[in-house]
Amino acid sequence: MLEIKNLQVEVDGKKILKGLTLSIDKGQVHAIMGPNGAGKSTLAHVLAGRAGYTVTGGSVSFEGQDLLALAPEARAAAGVFLAFQYPVEIPGVSTMNFLKTSVNAVRTAHGEKEYDAMDFLKFVRAKTKTLSISDDMLKRAVNVGFSGGEKKRNEVLQMALLNPKLAVLDETDSGLDVDALRIVGEGVTALRSPDNAMLVITHYQRLLDYIVPDRVHVLAGGKIVRSGDAGLALELEKKGYGEFAAEAA
Amino acid sequence: MTVGTRIGEGIGWLDDLRHQNRTAFHGLPTPKMESWKYTSLKPLYGFAFARPSSHEPPAGATEAALAALGGARLIFVDGIFNAGLSRLIGPAMPLSLALLKDAGAVHARLGHIAASDDPLTTLNGGFIDDGLVLMIDGATVEKPIVVEHISTAAPDGIASHPRSVIVLKANARATVIERFSGTGRYLTNPVSEIVVEDGAKLTHIRLFEDSEAAFNLSHLTARIGKDGAYESHVLATGGALVRNEMRIELAAAGADVSLNGAYLGRGKQHTDHTTVLRHSAPHTTSRQLYKGALDDASRGVFQGNIYVGEGADGTDGQMSNRTILLSDRCEMDSKPQLEIYADDVKCAHGATVGELDEDALFYLRARGVPERQARELLVEGFVAEAFDALAEPALVELMRARIVHWLAAGKTLREAA
Ligand SMILES: Nc1ncnc2c1ncn2[C@@H]1O[C@H](COP(=O)(O)OP(=O)(O)OP(=O)(O)O)[C@@H](O)[C@H]1O
Ligand SMILES: [Mg+2]
Fold first, then answer.
1. Do B385 and A91 touch (CB under 8 A)?
2. Which ipTM did the prediction report?
């Protein structure tokens, strides 16, 4: 489904990704772990199409298409979703309006009919319950005044509404209390299916308790320096990234 | 400048008032005047202030969304009342009718608080066309009173000088929605005099949706009594040049003024919001929030003045002006000013000029929203915040819908996509 080959990325002239290769098949969940500043969010942003990153080499293909050639909105329409590490606040735009605009934009791109207000409300209500998102939150401006946990739940809600083929979760488990972690963990697990794939960026094993990965990769110094099965995450949590420091340099 | 068939002709005091004003008028404001530094009326020099020959508005000139509110409706075409299009219920009536019914009551109010040092008010006083007269004794008018000022075009330019008088006596309550619209090149020079007495509250919405070749030079003077409230919501999207000047005196303790404004400009449009709030009694409160978005080579001006007079202790005055620039050819001049002669005063002002938030734009696009639509949504959210204070959801929706309509009509935002 996703083929990243020898990806090299610069930010402001600084090399961040230095030849990253990764391939994810339909139905799989891959986890990426790695020290702060390794380039995990950079990878996530490049996949979503954020400006400011210069791809100096390599390729990314998604279901056979050149993903890097697409505008961000076209990637979303193609089924790529990024749960942001730092969800953005949008004053003046209600969460409900934001969600409806997003879902309808993707439906339009697929040649489907837009939801009207009533149908959309029903559609959202079905998903907000399990994520403990209140109607009050939906009325408020996007992420404005939301707690850290609320922002992350809002990301999972968007993912549930858009039902992407490939979801990239950038530290969706960070800053969550135990209950929120359970809600998010269960929410994400519910979206796993044989038809889609997930790339889970995390620092902790705890989210992986809910969503057991098929593969775990260590990203250090802009490259995947080691890959293994779910056991690798446990090992990393115990030992840290010390042994990769030399390899990354 | 024939006087022709101006309303109320033959009423002695009104003839005198027009005459005095015409004698006192010595030309349009010039950039030499402090408050006209940023807005030039040069395009108006040589403008023939002609009177219209016909007063029939083009079909579809009135606004269905306002008619749907179901209250009184007063339609003026080129400053002349159009009974056929209007719906008179409740206390609101055109000045022309008020003069027939009780000229004395009008005499007691008209011209009393209008600015004497404003050339445009003087010009208006020299002609005085029809406008709204609303006098309420202590009652509440439930449904919004809709007033539409429609202007029509003539090759040499038509001018109208609508004059409105609103007096809310103690504890009265009303909502007035005024809309300015028209076709082609014209000048409308409306003057409003508003008195909100003790414990009364006026919610005043004004939509400046004039034609793109039009000049709208609006001047409003208001005086707010003890525990009285004046809440203004202004949306300016039209006109070649719109200047909306408001001078408000918070004349007694507990007076509360809230001015909310949004302006959207494109092409070569010029929008000027000038406010002068005079706190002249202790414990009065004012809030001003003006937000705008400018595209192309449009220009925006905000001049907010808070004057706290001697003895107006405990005044609380806050003023904020925020603009986003959508092109690098547009320009915003923001000049908030405070002048304080009292003690224990809480006053603050802030002005920002910035660009659309790129992070928010990416967030929306990453959620599948096309760039053009994402930009529109962000601008809408930004400027519509000016109307958060509006209590009635239907009216908030009305304002939002107009912003959305303006955004969808633009070319430049689309080109950005
Ligand atoms: N605009 C920029 N200019 C220069 N360096 C940048 C810029 N943006 C990011 N970087 C650098 O790129 C590197 C990778 O950042 P990235 O956010 O991808 O790390 P990360 O692996 O997600 O870290 P964390 O675990 O802390 O989230 C960091 O060293 C960061 O400082
Ligand atoms: Mg990161």
1. yes
2. 0.96
Do A95 and A72 meet the contact criterion of CB atoms below 8 Å apart? Answer: no
Query: For residues B126 and B123, what is the distance between their CA atoms, to the nearest angstrom?
Result: 5
What whole-number distance in Å separates Cα of residue B21 and Cα of residue A72?
62
Radius of gyration of chain B (CA): 21
* Interatomic CA distance for residues A109 and B330, integer angstroms: 33
Hey, are the CB atoms on A84 and B363 less than 8 Å from each other?
A: yes
Residues in Cβ contact with B53 at an 8 Å cutoff, skipping those fewer than 6 apart: B154
Q: Residues 6 or more apart from A87 whose CB is under 8 A from it? A: A143, A146, A151, A152, A154, A155, B363
Q: Does residue A164 have a pLDDT over 50? A: yes
Let me know how long chain B is. Answer: 417
pLDDT at B413 over 80: no
Amino acid at position A236, single letter: L
Please give the structure tokens belonging to residue A12: 């402001």
**C-beta separation of B277 from B269 below 8 A:** no
Tokens 């099965």 identify what position? A229
Question: CA A174 from chain center: how many Å?
Answer: 13
Q: In which residue are the tokens 């005198």 written?
A: B16
Nearest to A105 among B357, B363, B373 (CB): B373
Cα dihedral across residues A65, A67, A73, A78: positive or negative: positive
The mean pLDDT of B236-242, rounded to a whole number, is: 96
Bridge partners of B323?
A: B292, B353
* Distance of residue A157 Cα from the nearest chain B Cα, in angstroms: 12
Rounded CA-CA distance A109/B393 in Å is 31
d(CA B36, CA B403): 28
Strands of B197-269, DSSP E: 201-209, 215-224, 229-236, 241-250, 256-265
Q: Which region holds residue B46: left if phi is over 0, alpha if psi is between -120 and 50, else beta?
A: left
Nearest CA-CA partner of B222 in B261, B271, B275, B174: B275
Distance (Å) of CA B254 to CA B107, B307, B313: 29, 16, 12
**Rounded Cα–Cα distance for residues B354 and B357 (Å):** 9
- Look up tokens 């979760």; give the residue: A169
Question: Where does the pLDDT of residue B414 fall: very low under 50, low under 70, confident under 90, or very high at 90 and above?
Answer: very low
Q: Which of B357, B365, B373 to mutate to test the interface with A (most CBs of A within 10 A)?
A: B365
Which tokens go with B45? 């020099």
Q: B215-224, B225-234, B334-343, B405-414 — which is least confidently predicted?
A: B405-414
Q: What are phi and psi of A121, to 5 degrees?
A: -60, -45
Judged by CB atoms closer than 8 Å, whether chains meet at A141 and B381 is answered as: yes
- How far apart CA B195 and CA A191 sit, in angstroms, is 61
* Distance (Å) of CA A118 to CA A82, A124, B107: 27, 10, 54
Q: What is the pLDDT of residues B268-287, one digit of tens each?
A: 999 999 999 999 999 999 99
